[in-house]
Structures are given as structure tokens and as C-alpha cells.
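Input C-alpha cells:
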């Protein structure tokens, strides 16, 4: 079938709006796209940070819309072969062959997307934009928090706290887990916003000199901040590496710090189907407040410009 899509033909280049042939397999469902969030992972792919991918690409894995019966649905972004998914339930992100919609198969920067039927999740309501803005960020922090073992009262530093993952994930830490959150932001306006959400804003990663060290760092930014954020950890503290927004090599400037303080660095790979559904429930119930700016599919290049310029608080969301 045909779909209208934003196609990336060269890394770092502009997207081209064109018609594509959408391949629909026998086990696939077709979803009419209502809203697609532009994830930080998408931006890393756009920059050429995933060397195993080659254009042309139709990105977008934060896809929400309507099934063929008109019902509001979300598309779980992880595609994996069976029987691994059943055998690894709750750990399906570790399946061999796991991949993300919008990379090897066309994603949500389009009017329609095809995805495995088992990936389709019914939504409680049809406000698909709020889900496209918030679900991925919340689910990412649900998974990362479990990887780390964060509990009520723990002190947690979040980098990239005003971005699409950070601003929604920190709400999960504060409102659901009851953690004490320090949110790293780079402006007074953003500082006021995260403070309203229950976090303590910090513009300087040396905040621990006056506030004390933290138990955990949820490192959303990666290479630009990891060496400074590690300094904020108490002995035996844990840094969870969630993202690397610039796609460049992550190096440790002070490996002795890791050794002498017995710090842990843990990876966190996306989220499971159950965590995705859990995040949907928090957004639908109003526990999580969505932050987003909407753009039409035709304005995708302006959306990317605004993202890389730091002009978007929360998530940029595309609507066909």
C-alpha cells in the first residue's frame, strides 16, 4: 500500500516528503498514524550515530494512531523474533535480532505504519498526541529505575531533564517511586518548570558540593555530561547509561574514580512491553503531565532544527 512519509536520504540532511510503498506482511497490522514523537534516538540516527543503518530511512518509533477499526492504539516499538519474545518475557529487549521500528522497517514519520500484530496496544482514549509525547520517556525510566534498583527516598540525578525522556521520566521518579530528584537543566525557565514537577533544578553538575552526593545518576545525555555526572555519585553509587544524544564516543576521563569508589555503570536498553503498558496507564490517568510541541509532517525539518537548537521543552510530536 502507499503512504506519505518523511524520508531521510543522507545523514544530517533534510527530510524529503514523498510517497512510499509500505510493505505489509501476513502477521502485520496497519495503523493510521495520529502522532509520532521524535525521540533522541531518532536524532542520533539522523546524525549518523548508528553505523549499521543506511539511508533511505523512514524514522519514528513513538507511534500512536488508529487501527483499521478506528480504535486508538499504540505501537510497541520493539520487534523481535519468536519464540524469543515468549521465552524472554520481561527481558525481550535482550532478544537476539531485537530491533526498533523506524530503522530497518519504515516508522511513524508517515501517514501509515505496518507493525507486527502483537505490537499493537489498545489505548484508554483517543488523545494520541499526549501518548506520543510522554510514553517513551516514562517507559524508559521505568526500565532504567528497575535496572538500577531505585527505591523511595533514594537521591537521583537526571541529566537532560527538560528533554522528551527526562521531563517525563523524572515525574515517574518523583510521583510514582518517591525519589528525591536533582534535575540538570541549562536555563532559568527550564529550572522553574522542573521545580514545579517536584524536582530540585541544578544548572551546575558540581551541585553535590553543597547538596551532597546522590545514590544514582540516570544519564540521558551521554558523552557531554557523563564524566561530570559521575562525580556526583556516592561510593558504590550507580550510573545508568540511557542515552548518548550526540552519538559520539563515550570515554571515561577518570577511570580511577570508578575503581576507587567502586561505582557501577549499567546499561538500560529501551523498555519491555509490560513497561510500555505501565507507562500508558500513568499518562492516561494523569499521573504524568505531557510536555510537547506539535509539528505537521510537512514541517519535520523545522522540528529537527528546533530540537537541535534546544528550543523544544519535552517532546516534539509530528502529526500527519
Amino acid at each position: 500500500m502507499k503512504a506519505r512519509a518523511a524520508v531521510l536520504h543522507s545523514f544530517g540532511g533534510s527530510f524529503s516528503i514523498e510517497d512510499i510503498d509500505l510493505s505489509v506482511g501476513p502477521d502485520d497490522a496497519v495503523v493510521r498514524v495520529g502522532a509520532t514523537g521524535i525521540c533522541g534516538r531518532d536524532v542520533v540516527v539522523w546524525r549518523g550515530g548508528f553505523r549499521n543503518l543506511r539511508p533511505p530511512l523512514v524514522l519514528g518509533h513513538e507511534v500512536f494512531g488508529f487501527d483499521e477499526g478506528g480504535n486508538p492504539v499504540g505501537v510497541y516499538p520493539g520487534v523481535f523474533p519468536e519464540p524469543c519474545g515468549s521465552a524472554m518475557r520481561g527481558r525481550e529487549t535482550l532478544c537476539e535480532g531485537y530491533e526498533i521500528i523506524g530503522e530497518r522497517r519504515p516508522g511513524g514519520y508517515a501517514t501509515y505504519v505496518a507493525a507486527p500484530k502483537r505490537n499493537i496496544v489498545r489505548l484508554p482514549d483517543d488523545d494520541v498526541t499526549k501518548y506520543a509525547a510522554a510514553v517513551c520517556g516514562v517507559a524508559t525510566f521505568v526500565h532504567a529505575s528497575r535496572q538500577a534498583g531505585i527505591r523511595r527516598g533514594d537521591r537521583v540525578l537526571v541529566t537532560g531533564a527538560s528533554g522528551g525522556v527526562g521531563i517525563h521520566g523524572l515525574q515517574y521518579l518523583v510521583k510514582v517511586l518517591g525519589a528525591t530528584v536533582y534535575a540538570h537543566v541549562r536555563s532559568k525557565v527550564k529550572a522553574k518548570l522542573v521545580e514545579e514537577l517536584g524536582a530540585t533544578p541544578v544548572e551546575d553538575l558540581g551541585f553535590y558540593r553543597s547538596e551532597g552526593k546522590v545514590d544514582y545518576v540516570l544519564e540521558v545525555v551521554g558523552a557531554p555530561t557523563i564524566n561530570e555526572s559521575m562525580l556526583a555519585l556516592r561510593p558504590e553509587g550507580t550510573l545508568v547509561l540511557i542515552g548518548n544524544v550526540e552519538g559520539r564516543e563515550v570515554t571515561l576521563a577518570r577511570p580511577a574514580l570508578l575503581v576507587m569508589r567502586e561505582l557501577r555503570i549499567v546499561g538500560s536498553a529501551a523498555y519491555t512491553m509490560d513497561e510500555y503498558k505501565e507507562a500508558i496507564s500513568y499518562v492516561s490517568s494523569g499521573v504524568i503531565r505531557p510536555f510537547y510541541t506539535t509539528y505537521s509532517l510537512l514541517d519535520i525539518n523545522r522540528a529537527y532544527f528546533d530540537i537541535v537548537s534546544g528550543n523544544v521543552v519535552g517532546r516534539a510530536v509530528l502529526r500527519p
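The longest helix spans residues 128-148. The chain is about 30% helix and 25% strand.
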